Amino acid sequence: MNNINFERNPSAPYYPGIKFNAETGVCEIEGESYMEEAYKFYLPLINWVKEFTENEKRKLYFNVKLMYFNTSTSKCLLDIFELLKKYAAEGGQVEVTWYYDPDDPDMIDEIKDFERESELNFNIRQLQS
Amino acid sequence: MDEKGIINSVSTHLIDKEQSLIAYEGPFFIDLLTIFGNYLKIMTENNTLIQKKLFKIYVELSQNVAYYAEEFINLENESKRIGIGELRVTKDSAQYQLMTKNLVKVRDANVLSQRCDIINNSALNDLKGLKRELRKSSESNKLGARIGLVQARLISNNPLEFQLIEKNRYYSYFKLMVKFDKNEQH
Asked: Could you report the predicted ipTM of this complex, rounded to two decimals?
């Protein structure tokens, strides 16, 4: 199974940085996410999580370090959490850690919304600048 | 701006009570929206709470135009559609005001005005529930989650002000204003 690496680019800050590692099971999304047609960007990530949970069946660590994401991105993140929820319900090991920006008090509400919708327990930690 | 299009500093001195920060009419290209967004971040960098809220409302409103405006241009062999519309961001001593205006089909205009009415007449907790419900039921392969207006209302903590202006039998302009109080506390 391939890794996914997508570096952040200052001239296109609407794309987040992505590191999905198939050997370690560590997935990380960081930066900002407000690109056009979010589902086109996130579809390979959703498919990667699907493949990992169906074939690798090891512990998956999902770390979110997004300073900002638009509502289109939030739908894609929810799709990923739905997969993780299904994986956990089938006995798979999942650890979601969401790092929030301390300067953005609304972010905690957003994270708790996702936690409620996905029915997963998140580790919520402050993002270190 | 420097060579990369990044604004390093802005200094304004206006006598008028209302100050125009952005006035634009044309296609809502993502790279252009990013430059405007960076400008708004710089203009509000002394208050990170306002900076974050203003940017979030700005992105949702402008991407609504980019995705859904009925006047648009096609790019990349017509596979990409970029909505055309108007954007104004102004501020006065008490508020920031974000306004977008774009063409919509008459039948969609009615749906939009009903949606705005529902959003404006819902309590905060009901709105959060509506947001979750709409996000969950929206189709993943569509442009957006269709919760941008709910999000703008939640973040601004002010009603959506909207107006439909008839263009002809088939199309109207949808003008949307979101006001955000400078002294807004979380």
From this structure: 0.93
